[in-house]
């Protein structure tokens, strides 16, 4: 049986590294794409360097590889950076998606594409829900994907994951806190963990469960559909700090800057396929793996 050829953009990013490993083990012929040259998975994954904001370079990539499926993970996902350089966020998240979909439409129109959006998208019917340029860029990215699916009858599915956690390089709150604890353990940093609001509540989904969910969407997701992906078990920030205290090799205290609930907690619309996903990886295991990863960086 011929392997399905899968291009994964953003292959060297937090989710991309896990996705390359997972889909290779699942039997796909994986082509990892990133702007910077790199080697992924001990030569188990074919790697190509490509700037997705360069439409000629991108078109050549699709023409040469003719993928059966594309998992589009690449993008700028740092909210503060979107404030300082909003145009770069629009180019990286929105324009590059249009270039990618157009190249696929022209070169391999039967390819199934999974575009990964963000829980930080805003409601296009209420502009007051727009909080930052990053949200704008991801919302427009999804609108582009939906438009290409509608106008050109392409096979495009959209995933909208909640906060992804797990071992690896991440700017998420769990990784930031775990790194601080690892610095206390290994570098002698002050044994105080300062957080903004212990009662802030968010949904967390392990990145390894999310990648498994992406394969489900490749197999079962209907073209034009958007699927929320979450654990359905929101956690308070206090639960994260308590988990870290329970598994740390040292004792440390936790200080809270705020002790009231967040005024606004975004709620994802219901989804029949991947909402309230059964966690294959327990939350406590996610936190432990994140801490071990941060420890490894410091050793």
Automatic annotation (TrEMBL):
Top-rank lineage group of the source organism: Bacteria
NAD-dependent epimerase/dehydratase domain boundaries: 7-224
UniProt similarity note: Belongs to the NAD(P)-dependent epimerase/dehydratase family.
Name listed for the protein in its UniProt record: NAD-dependent epimerase/dehydratase family protein
The organism of origin for this protein: Psychrobacillus psychrodurans
């Amino acid at each position: 049986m011929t392997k399905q050829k899968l291009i994964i953009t953003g292959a060297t990013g937090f989710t991309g590294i896990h996705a390359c490993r997972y889909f290779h083990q699942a039997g796909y012929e994986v082509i990892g794409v990133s702007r910077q040259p790199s080697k992924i998975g001990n030569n188990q994954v074919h790697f190509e360097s490509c700037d997705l904001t360069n439409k000629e370079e991108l078109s050549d990539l699709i023409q040469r590889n003719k993928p059966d499926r594309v998992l589009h993970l690449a993008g700028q996902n740092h909210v503060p950076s979107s404030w300082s350089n909003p145009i770069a966020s629009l180019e990286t998240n929105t324009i590059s998606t249009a270039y990618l979909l157009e190249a696929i439409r022209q070169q391999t129109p039967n390819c199934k594409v999974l575009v990964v959006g963000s829980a930080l998208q805003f409601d296009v019917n209420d502009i007051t829900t727009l909080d930052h340029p990053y949200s704008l860029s991801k919302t427009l990215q999804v609108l582009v994907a939906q438009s290409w699916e509608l106008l050109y009858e392409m096979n495009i599915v959209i995933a909208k994951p909640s906060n992804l956690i797990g071992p690896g390089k991440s700017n998420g709150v769990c990784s930031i806190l775990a790194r601080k604890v690892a610095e206390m353990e290994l570098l002698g940093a002050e044994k105080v963990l300062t957080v903004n609001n212990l009662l802030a509540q968010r949904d967390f989904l392990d990145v390894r469960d999310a990648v498994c969910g992406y394969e489900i969407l490749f197999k079962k997701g209907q073209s034009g559909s958007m699927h929320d992906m979450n654990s359905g078990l929101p956690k308070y920030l206090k639960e994260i700090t308590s988990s870290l205290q329970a598994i740390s090799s040292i004792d440390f205290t936790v200080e809270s800057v705020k002790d009231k609930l967040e005024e606004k907690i975004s709620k994802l619309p219901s989804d029949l396929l991947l909402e309230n996903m059964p966690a294959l990886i327990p939350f406590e295991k996610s936190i432990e793996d994140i801490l071990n990863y941060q420890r490894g960086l410091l050793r």
